[in-house]
Amino acid sequence: MRLGFLIVDMQAIYLQDQMEKKIVDKACEYINYVADLLRSKDHVVIHIQDLEGIQESNREEYNFIPEIEIKNNDLKMTKENSNAFWKTELEQILLNHGIELVIIAGFAAEHCVLFTYNGAIERGFKPVILQQGILSTQSDVIISTYRDRNMISYPVIEYLANE
């Protein structure tokens, strides 16, 4: 089974001065571990960058945070809507790579992560949320996301990546 890992909106504009650094660092540790694992088994890692509201004066704030490791073979795409599938090439990228299971991580659990999760379902993919890999400015949102959505832990990803 081919796995796709979507890392959503891990950008300075959303995380710097919005979230406690140790919380961001912990999520980044899980995200980077899973990304490295999937890269090593030739699965697909995609970094998704939200450009809604970008202007020349704030362009740098829209960069990915340095705590997220981006490797040469990773794919990058941009979006202007909460759902990373909406008006983007994401669905075609996943189809072209034969992706069946879509692992989603990033910011914000109640917005772009959730809408992308739902967008994956609508397009026939099997989405899961990476345990310890999502962020929100509201701590109760993380708990409800884990309760109400399919979630996956990194040991299960280790097993699936080796299949």
Quick recap:
The protein is of the alpha/beta class and 163 residues long. Helices cover 39% and strands 25% of the residues.
Model description:
With 163 residues, the chain is α/β, with parallel strands linked by helices. 39% of the residues lie in helices and 25% in strands. The protein contains 6 helices and 6 strands; from the N terminus they run E-H-H-E-E-H-E-H-E-H-E-H. Strand 5, helix 5 and strand 6 form a beta-alpha-beta unit. Helix 2 runs parallel beside helix 6 (154-161).
- Fraction of residues in helices? 25-40%
Tell me the β content.
15-25%
Distance between the terminal alpha carbons, to the nearest Å? 7 Å
Order of helices and strands: EHHEEHEHEHEH
Largest sheet geometry: 6 strands, parallel
The count of strands amounts to 6
**Total of DSSP H or I helical runs spanning 4+ residues:** 6
**Classification by helices and strands:** alpha/beta
Keywords, please?
alpha/beta; 163 residues; 6-stranded parallel β-sheet
SSE map:
Layout: E1 2-8, H1 12-15, H2 21-40, E2 44-50, E3 75-79, H3 90-96, E4 99-107, H4 109-122, E5 126-135, H5 139-148, E6 151-152, H6 154-161
Parallel strand pairs: 1-2, 1-4, 2-3, 4-5, 5-6
Helix pairs in contact: 2-6
